[in-house]
Amino acid sequence: xxxxxxxxxxxxxxxxxxxxxxxxxxxxxxxxxxxxxxxxxxxxxxxxxxxxxxxxxxxxxxxxxxxxxxxxxxxxxxxxxxxxxxxxxxxxxxxxxxxxxxxxxxxxxxxxxxxxxxxxxxxxxxxxxxxxxxxxxxxxxxxxxxxxxxxxxxxxxxxxxxxxxxxxxxxxxxxxxxxxxxxxxxxxxxxxxxxxxxxxxxxxxxxxxxxxxxxxxxxxxxxxxxxxxxxxxxxxxxxxxxxxxxxxxxxxxxxxxxxxxxxxxxxxxxxxxxxxxxxxxxxxxxxxxxxxx
Length: 293
Known about the structure:
The chain has ten helices and eight strands.
């Protein structure tokens, strides 16, 4: 049986340093029946030329100020000709020729709304973030026991289920988490495909880590309010941070990366503060919206 058409969607912004390898790895995939759609948000680092050379089916160019994740995703999916839509970040580089097929195979199940692959950190990834990737995607990942986990970085969705609602266009963080939670609430399943592997990681500064965790906590609280199972609180701030540091200590000991422990402690503190502040701000927004409606 011939392989069904698959649409690969890449979002790009000044990631030419990784995009060259990502596009080359995509071109080398053994799954050949695919089309490419790229949305670039005003890159100035040569990414535009790399994308044009890849000859995508559609190439959307917007200004950085126009970038709203859900809006961009929905716009790209509407252009897709296939029933199976695969998302790949510009800085997420497939590690072999079989990255695409496991995602498509999972999505061929009509009850599987979404699937996501494994991410391994790049060489040079700081210990605090390498541990997070191990917990989310490692062989003995903790994320399998969490209430919910999903990452759009290297993933796919079924278009027929997306057509029922699509991604929310009102938030700048956690659009993938919200969409996959919605899918599960409708009775659909979400698959993890560990055989689909990309290299992808970020060494966020403390300020960047704060911004990201604040945004994600705000988005979740603003949408789900009191329904959130994991609710940060001031009384649990220190205990949560100490638990984080203990995990980092054990990880640094196993990997002989003791020198990175102070850095990990700073990052975890910023993450915990941001999560608490973002949750409180999001919860206020949730209640304000409830009053208006």
